[in-house]
Queue: 2 jobs
Job 1
Amino acid sequence: MYEFTYTTQAPRVVFGAGSMKLIQQEVEKLGARRALILCTPEQKAQAELVASLLGPSSAGVFDGAQMHVPVENARRARKHAKECGADCAVAIGGGSTIGLGKAIALESSLPIIAIPTTYAGSEMTPIYGITEGGLKKTGRDARVIPKTVLYDPELSMGLPVALSIVSGLNAIAHAAEGLYAKDGNPVITLMAEEGIRSLAKGLRAVKMNAKDKVARSECLYGAWLSGMVLGNVGMALHHKLCHTLGGTFSLPHAETHAIVLPHALAYNSSVVGDAMERIARALNVESAPAGLYDLNEELGVPQGLREIGLSEGDLDYACEVALSNPYWNPRPIEAGPLRALLQRAWEGHRPTA
Ligand code: NAD
């Protein structure tokens, strides 16, 4: 029997190859006249292309976006936006650049247009993160949601295959946990299943040919759907574990997600049969946890936490940290089974659930 509450606050989405070229009219649609373009130093060329498309509506490029949004960068960017008279910002890049845009929006009324070039999905969420004194603080605030998102698959053609794969698998993790979220609903469920299907299909094709436009489009479509899931419902065991592992042991964000997901799903599988069926159907496999493990293998990502810098001696502490901070999960989090999950994820065995 259905029972749910569904509210959504989503940006306007323009999707299609070459959609970046619509930037000028999208800025005008917001009633803005001067757009500051945000990027990382590595994506300055793409940002300058946006600036040239904007012509006199460009307030210049700020190429100071950095991983985890250091608070000093956010302050510098806000100050720069004020000084150059910007009345909107265009963030072109991945989660780090869009995160900088969000940090600006949080403390000003500057509307943000996002042009995502990875599959992280941040552009669809009200979640922000700012790092101060080595600590990343995250929060949810509707003010940080971009007003408009231009999804242009041509811009991800240059995203290295390895980065494309881990970024896409990270997006699959958002969709997978959205399928058993406490505050889930049937619309999000549809998006999540379709997101997993399209990402798995697209990533396999990108691995064969990074310049496959159709595959890039499929991945970006999946990233949009998975971002919607992340923005609208709460996450559970898997995300909590990845934050613990990433935050405590500085493990790489996206790889950690890829490795842990099959094991976190195996932990929950006995109590969320419907979600497991949907994931398995999206992957066209018998078992969701094993199917995701096999997808990782096919895509060539590391299979064990030991391969990405976690030592076996850290597992007890990781378990302790994860347990010390209670959170909702469809199956109660218990020390013994959680420690066993971590051991399996560390060793990199194929889940049996
Ligand atoms: P990223 O933004 O950190 O980018 C990684 C590198 O790849 C950067 O140097 C970037 O310039 C480069 N790059 C990006 N797109 C490229 C392209 N098309 N071609 C060539 N190089 C390209 O990576 P990410 O995985 O998108 O984002 C990770 C960050 O986003 C993490 O800090 C994560 O916590 C955050 N995130 C936030 C949310 C949210 O809802 N707030 C959601 C997902 C991820």
Job 2
Amino acid sequence: MNLSIGARLIGVGACVPDSVVTNTDLEKLVDTSDEWIRTRTGIRERRVVKDNETASGLAIGAAKDAIAFAGIDPAIIDLIVVATSTPDNLYPSTACLVQADIGATRAAAFDLEAACTGIIYALAVGQQFIGSGTFKTVLVIGVDIHSRFLDWEDRNTCVLFGDGAGAFIMQASEENEILSTYLRADGTGGHLLCIPNSNVAFPHAGTTPPKAISRFLSMNGRVVYEFAIKAVPEAIEAACARAGIQVRDIDFLVPHQANQRIIKAAAERLGFPPEQIVTNIDQYGNTSAASIPLAFSDAVKRGQIKGPVTCALVGFGGGLTWGSAILKWTAKDSRT
Ligand code: UT7
């Protein structure tokens, strides 16, 4: 990649709502079982926002955690990019709400939407702005509260998702530690996983009765599953080739936490033993754009990831989108 200035991660953080919804709780809502959910997905419980909680609130929590980790003054942040499919508003952006709250007074701020791959897109954007010399310090956040967009009577989807936020802080550095990124999309598969914005696409004045239009997430699970088990190895192999390393040089695989079986199948195909795979899907379910930084933050906090190590982050989801980032992790928590 032809960027003149290197970038590295200096912080990671996360924030989840307090409310836990277990598989047993869901047995009371839909025709499902703890056994089905655990064996088909690996999920045991997930966090869900209360009525007074928001995506921006979780994003702010994750940002503050990452800022404390990095030990920086928020006023030095030049850019905030929030990856989300479930923003508080059409505008102002979630990134602007974060900017105001954390006191990042100098920062430019915008949201991007690439569903569950959003954080990989956000890291790539941050790397470009740092690499070109435009900005020095970039805060990227992945946040989603899919619980607001689920049909809680649809067992095919309501058991899968959880709410949460995760954040990384990137900074210009002499030693480049973001070794590569790889971004892909295939819009012809958009219908396979979607949340229609019925207010915009089908206004009330139209001929279709508003009630007939779902505002809920819908997914063709089997087809997305098949897509995912191919997309993950492809993205990692391509990102490794761009970084000039072999897959065997990676110490930790940090995949999007959508389904434990997808993670296992992809990891086996790439030759990763279980101890090199970072997962927390059992506790949080699929938190979409938040899942990779949330899993990364957890792994750092429990000591599984300890620098210096090389990590492969890989995401896939609605759009369809998929992508990977290969990076070194050398940062230390300023609080310890
Ligand atoms: O981050 C976005 C990316 N999303 C994904 O990566 C999701 C990818 N897909 C998946 O993870 C899996 O396809 C699912 C977990 C969604 C479903 O697992 P599956 O093994 O593919 O199940 P299936 O869709 O083939 O369904 C098998 C059966 C069906 O019943 P019949 O038709 O065989 O009688 C479903 O109706 O399981 C049934 N089923 C359930 N049963 C109990 C579906 N959901 C449930 C449920 N509880 N919650």
